[in-house]
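Shall we go through a protein fold together, starting from nothing but its sequence? Label the sequence line and the structure token line clearly, so we can match residues to local backbone shapes. Would you write everything just below, so we can both look at the same thing?
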Amino acid sequence: MITVPAGVRVYLALGTTDMRKGFDGLSVLAQEVLREDPFSGHLFVFRGRRGDLIKVLYWDGQGLCLFGKRLERGRFIWPQAREGTVTLSPAQLAMLLEGIDWRAPLRTARPSCAG
């Protein structure tokens, strides 16, 4: 589980990314495709073609961190657009990392009124 510090934005890179890319390749994508500074302290999330692997690039103030997750079953839910970016909340990122459809989560029970 990645804890997202306050004020940090989470950017999804739309479309697919060559998952052979590492620190340098993904930071270039963040800079040129997403038009964001990879050293800003924000999180940049990339998904591979098959949809079962994502990588998260993050500058922690001392260096770049690269986190990866591969699902054994299923695929990560991703927007249909082929280019551009989407910003997620930390809660949506947590759902994404768990393989949950973060776009429209459903409550299993209605909140009850204390009365």
